[in-house]
Specification:
By secondary structure, the chain is an alpha/beta fold. The chain contains 13 helices and 13 strands. The strands form two sheets. An eight-stranded mixed β-sheet has the order 3-2-1-4-5-6-7-8, sandwiched between helices. Strands 10-9-11-12-13 form a five-stranded parallel β-sheet, with helices on one face. Strand 4, helix 4 and strand 5 form a beta-alpha-beta unit. Helix 4 packs parallel to helix 5. The radius of gyration is 24 Å and the shape is elongated. The relative contact order is 0.08. It binds nicotinamide-adenine-dinucleotide (NAD). Nicotinamide-adenine-dinucleotide (NAD) binds next to helix 4.
Length: 449
């Protein structure tokens, strides 16, 4: 059957997902859920082997789900990119980090486009999902794909409605919120922009099969900007409450009481909560993709810079609070035994990318603290891009172990922690997340910061 844009709204579509990580794997499984045949492409052979064996490597994705689809021949994984030729649609979900100079590192996207180009087929649909600056799909991905000699003209608006295209190219940002039980992929509307109207229709038809609602926008650049607006909105609002938290501490006000009370206003307010700093793969990273691109237009993105400044300073604020609380007890950070609770960047996830806990470990170690950590999701730490804590293992939490530290620092408020017991057994608790709000006894040992 000829792959017209309408073809992608039908059954029996072969979907290839490049990058089987936090975004790509759930997306692959969702397409398999609705009966499409899905192939995951990745460079990481151990991941591919696990997937084909029906195993999971992401805590909130159950192995049974993968196994069911593998057994039913709805899903398999491979590193053989020549198999891209057999796909009807190819969705790109590879990382978009920052480099050492905090500038966009698009090498993963570029390499992926280069891997697709020699395998590109007439009327295939290619969609970029990775978060990136406006212009990436048209300026970076499209020219590489067109090296195949197939063409996908950039054309927007009604006049371009029937323009011919050899393949379809679109951008649709992922909105995955790992661990969110209320909103799974199927419930989250998906924004879609095409390089031309046929591409937009093809991508919209495909995604309509897996999400409750597709939101078409006028171009790939608009779709790219939508995702950045969403993440910058979070970044700026988190910075706002992080700053107000520090003022509230000086004014002896409880910022959490204030936020929760303000959130009772039924319109015009959305609660954001302060913490020890920004974490995760997206919020601390994505805004800088826009700042970087804005420079091309002689434009300074001041909100982004200011939010970055406030959020980056938060781990230093926490270290200051630890120093002050130890000082009250006639102790110094140097030589004090400190137990950090939670290395994941947010509660109940097994993801520590950009986690402020890592910065806290680094800063406290540099000041001479004797550090341990506990995290139910990380039995040990490994070498990372910016940090090397590969000698650290999660310590057990017991009455004796908690009592053996000068200070217990709650960096991540995992639900499984028994905060009453922590306050009872620890000598001093520094709480960066208001995790101990329901603890009634031993409050004199708790310092909110
Ligand atoms: N994690 C999230 O919650 C989230 C949410 C929304 C958007 N995003 C965006 O989605 C994109 C992917 O993020 P992620 O969290 O899934 O990353 P990830 O690191 O979990 O997964 C990326 C996968 O891509 C693979 N990969 C890298 N280069 C490849 C290549 N050239 N060919 C094939 N596979 C390759 C890696 O081995 C890895 O398995 C990023 O742009 C990110 O900003 C992430």
């Amino acid at each position: 059957m000829e792959r017209t844009p309408e073809f992608f709204a039908g059954k029996g579509i072969k979907v290839g997902i490049i990058g089987c990580g936090y975004v790509g794997l759930p997306l692959a499984l969702r397409f398999a859920d609705v009966g499409q045949r899905v192939t995951g492409f990745d460079l990481d052979q151990p991941k591919i082997d696990k997937l084909n064996a029906g195993q999971s490597y992401i805590q909130h994705i159950p192995a049974e789900k993968i196994k069911t689809h593998v057994d039913a021949n709805h899903f398999d994984a491979t590193s053989n990119f020549t198999r891209l030729r057999d796909m009807d649609a190819v969705l790109i979900c590879v990382p978009t980090p920052l480099d050492e100079r905090r500038e966009p590192d698009l090498s993963y996207v570029e390499n992926t486009a280069k891997a697709i180009a020699p395998n590109l087929q007439r009327n295939q649909l290619i969609v970029l999902e990775s978060t990136t600056y406006p212009g990436t799909t048209e300026e970076l991905v499209l020219p590489i794909l067109e090296k195949s000699a197939l063409r996908c003209p950039i054309a927007v608006g009604a006049a371009a409605e029937n323009i011919a295209t050899d393949f379809y190219l679109a951008f649709s940002p992922e909105r995955e919120d790992p661990g969110n039980k209320q909103f799974g992929l199927a419930q989250i509307p998906k924004v879609v922009g095409g390089v031309n109207p046929a591409s937009a229709r093809a991508a919209a038809g495909l995604y309509a099969q897996i999400v409750s609602k597709v939101i078409p926008v006028s171009s790939t650049r608009a779709a790219e900007m939508v995702k950045l607006l969403e993440n910058i909105f979070r970044c700026v609002n988190i910075a706002l409450v992080n700053e107000l938290k520090q003022l509230c501490l000086r004014m002896n006000l409880d910022i959490f009481e204030i936020i929760d009370s303000a959130a009772t206003k039924p319109f015009g307010f959305m609660p954001f909560y302060p913490g020890p700093g920004l974490g995760g793969h997206c919020i601390p990273v994505d805004p800088y993709y826009l700042s970087w691109k804005a420079r091309e237009y002689d434009f300074a993105t001041r909100f982004i810079e200011l939010a970055g400044e406030v959020n980056t300073a938060m781990p230093y604020h926490v270290v200051g609070a630890v120093a002050a609380a130890l000082n009250e007890r006639k102790k110094a950070i140097k030589g004090s035994k400190i137990l950090l609770l939670g290395v994941a960047y947010k509660k109940d996830v097994d993801d520590l990318r950009e986690s402020p806990s890592l910065k806290l470990l680094e800063l406290l170690t540099a000041r001479g603290a004797v550090l341990d950590y506990n995290d139910p999701y990380f039995a040990a730490l490994h070498k990372m891009r910016h940090y090397d804590f590969s000698n650290m293992r999660s310590v057990d939490l017991s009455r004796e172990s908690l009592a053996s530290y000068d200070c217990v620092l709650i960096a991540t408020d995992h639900s499984s922690y028994d905060y009453d017991a922590i306050a009872r057994d620890a000598n001093l608790v520094i709480d960066t997340r208001n995790a101990t709000r329901r603890v009634k006894q031993n409050r004199e040992k708790i310092v909110n910061c």
